[in-house]
Each structure stands twice: as structure tokens, then as C-alpha cells.
Amino acid sequence: MLTRRALVTRGAVAGAASVFFLWPRPAEAEAETAKPVLARTKDIRVGGGKIVKGKYVITRPKKNVFRCFSAKCTHQGCTVASVSGGTINCPCHGSKYDIRTGAVVRGPAPRALPRKKIKVSGGRIRLA
Fold first, then answer.
1. How far is 127 from 125, CA to CA, in rounded Å?
2. pLDDT band of 35, cuts 50, 70, 90
């Protein structure tokens, strides 16, 4: 037989569990944790950049400014190899892109690198 005290205790435990497990989380927090971290801000020096998984290139033209572009050269699809001297550099045919805008600085690339939207929060860089 279930006593009143046992019934109240079980009800309280069940209620607390449902609040903990079923409480709605803000959509923004869910979306942020669902997207993987591409890089940490401390790993990218000012004026430099980082190629991420051969898919993205993240640059840091100024102290608190980060940009993300496709890492595929618009000339023949080679993956860019480095970021130095204010440019993103393709090893295949020498194309260079501006780290601020992704615009072509030196061809033969016909157009700028496509820009990707990112979110910088808590020292982490994620796709937006």
C-alpha cells in the first residue's frame, strides 16, 4: 500500500525529472552547440589565417575581425595552402586572395573566394 508521504515524494521526484529533461532549451543555444568549432581565436594571429579541413580558410585581418572563405581556389578548384603577407595563397597556379575580402589580388583566379558566415563567441569560431 502506498502511503501519502511516498506518493508525494514520488510525485515531487517525477515532477523535478520532467522539468529537468523536458524544459525547452533556447533554439540559439541548440544551434550553437550543434555546429562544430572550426577554430579557436587564439590560434589565429593578426594578419594570418588557418586552413580548416581543406574546406575553409579563416583569416584575422585585424585584432577583433575574423573572416571565413571557401578554401577552394576559383581557378581550378585546388585547395589553398597558406595565409601570409596579407593574402590567401593557392599553390597550384599562384593565385592570391585578400585576407579581408577574399578578392583576387593576383590571378589566374577569375573571381573572389566565396565568403562563409561565421559566429565568434567565447573564443570559438563556428559556421553561422
1. 7
2. confident
